[in-house]
Amino acid sequence: MNIQEAIHQYSLFLSVEKGLLPKTVENYLTDLRLFFSSLPKINDTKELSRNHVYQYLEFMKRNNFAQKTIARRLSTLKNFYAFLEGEGFLEEGLPKIETPKGEKKLPSVLTKEEVERLLNAPDITTPLGLRDKAMLVLMYSTGIRVSELIALKLRHISWEERHLKIEGKGAKERIVPVTQDALFWVKKYINEARKDYSRKQNPYVFLSRFGKPLTRVYFFQEVKRYAREVNIPISISPHTLRHSFATHLLEGGASLRVVQTLLGHTKIETTELYTHLKSNTILQEYDRLMNENKVK
Predict the structure, then answer these.
(1) pLDDT per residue over 189-213, tens digit each?
(2) Is position 199 annotated as part of the catalytic site?
């Protein structure tokens, strides 16, 4: 893939799937542009190697860059390489490179009451509202990524066995169970709304009003709009539903391994992040209950 196109795809991933603020995304992209300015002859991702990162790291050390700057730029490159490898655009992955440890920011998670408000936000008397309702319910009940949601095809739904076949990162397939409620809304959308604006046969489940597959950016904007309509105070993205799904499963007693399998994480360390979220939620609930029961 062309380097400029790869950077563009990565910016979409950061803003839509990760839900980062525009300023934060731009900071990442600035770091990437500075890195590639040192590699003027590299035009395609298949030409990238881990040695380019090592050389850039040595360049920053030789020129006495601040440790904070080195750590941030190296973190940006590691995440960018991981993204390219996961998408199948990189020949040679990046091995583990130690960087100064900083505080890890935990992703936002909705309460169950906020999830319910969000899922009930679309106007299901309209075709597009019914579609959005089905998408929101399906995403929260399965924890799939927004990219997996919009790429879902009709043949990937097993109605009888109640599961989805998901084509995840790196062309890896996994089977994800789905609730009866989610299947109800998807079937209702297909039978009552999808046929109304799908002008020709299309393999994808969720379509625009013009009968074309949806984009990640479009769904990101819709989720933000619905969140504003129901007064959800935190800044959210479609990825917030995935975080909420995982956290609520753990709160309900699911094992870390089960959540890892459902989310499609290659490493258990990635899933372990949600144990911190779970502890955070318990502490917040404890504080709330103690405040409510204070002796006046």
Answers:
(1) 999 998 766 656 789 999 998 888 8
(2) no
